Amino acid sequence: MSISLELSSKAKPLDRSNIRRVVISSWIGNTIEFYDFLLYGLASALVFGKIFFPTISPLAAMLASFATFGVGFIARPLGGIFFGHMGDTLGRKITLMITLGGMGVATFLIGCLPTWDHIGVWAPILLVILRFVQGFLVGGEWGGAMLMVVESAPANRRGVLGAIPQTGGFSGQLLATGIFALVTLLPEDQLLSWGWRIPFMLSFVLVLVGLYMRRRLEETPVFKEIQQREQQNPSVAQGKTSSPVVQVLRHQWRSILLIMVLRFAESVPFFMATVFAVSYATTQLGVEKQTMLNVVMATCVLAFPMHALFGALSDKVGRRPVYIFGALCAAAMAFPFFWLLESGSFGLMVLGYILLINIAHNSINAVQPSFFTELFGPKVRYSGASIGAQLGAIVAGGFTPFVAKGLTAINHDDWTYVAAYVAVAALVAAFAAWRAPETSRRDLTQEVD
């Protein structure tokens, strides 16, 4: 699908080549972010329980492995606060250079970790520490990358251009799943000894590409305009008595809370399907690991046109209608997804993933960059969008695999409670979207009341 960069007649002329660079670089950065983060999810489901928690029962090892997955989400809001302040005061570009480089280093070091057999209890301790660092850096990455695009885009293209970098999550998933699919072809002893390390170490190469792209970017027109206003009116800058984080928490806490609730319809289905369901299908339903990885990869490929479609639609009809549609679809597909998964048929499992992920999730995910950033004024936008999204990531996404595994454990390995959990989460988010303001026509240079 071709994307037009034509501006509305009332918009100021913008540098199209710069917009394209911003979109592409944000897409690459988002790809790397999700490659690093989702790779850990796959390893948690298939490997980490055996090599970092070998002395406890298989169920306890799986729960412990998923819990370390959740630790990264606990660190996200802290990163959102720290890097949100940096991005709102020092600039978007320098902040994104730091988050991307640091995240790549943390992921590389995970691939270098000795296992339980080598250093005992220190192995899972170091794993948790690096996972925390990884999550802290991710907390400042997403908000800034999305801001770069939305603040640089023409007003009538913010939805579709903001949706394109969101496909980086699926590019990262495609890379992580594809590389992990290759290493799982190794004999199990080689996979557990050195094969699982390869995908983590390859992150270093991807980060170098991302840093090269980002260093060529300019600051966003919105941030430049705010800086010019403060230079022309020094009393405005001198009148600042609190940091952007304090300001947004004091005056726009409702928007932060709104984002947290909205994320339930996106994060719960996604992490249930891409982390928990992979583990459940391979351990409880007897589906081959390679088959499940192929199912996830097929879903990732379809995510690209779907994001462009829903992003463009949100520019026409608004953010709220698209978000409500996606949330209701996620609720409706919670139970059918597991019925199709139980079939064991590759085609039917792909169909389940298409309905839950490519239609329900993708419609929501495509709208989030523009919707979330438009909720805040320019002086606190990085902080507000980052804090809201990352707090939502904790309650809605980080512990979804852990919660889902626990729900099956108390229900004799049955998935019914898990499906109900997904449906309720999506319905709550649909209600929040219905109550939310429509933001698609807002002027991003103006403060929000």
Automatic annotation (TrEMBL):
InterPro entries: MFS_dom, MFS_sugar_transport-like, MFS_trans_sf. The lineage of its organism: Bacteria, Pseudomonadati, Pseudomonadota, Gammaproteobacteria, Enterobacterales. Pfam families: Sugar_tr. This is Metabolite-proton symporter. Residues 22-440 form the Major facilitator superfamily (MFS) profile domain. The chain crosses the membrane at residues 34-53, 59-82, 94-116, 122-148, 160-182, 194-213, 256-280, 292-310, 322-340, 346-364, 385-403, 415-434. The keyword Membrane applies. Keywords: Cell membrane, Membrane, Transmembrane, Transmembrane helix, Transport. It comes from Biostraticola tofi. One of its GO terms (cellular component) is plasma membrane.
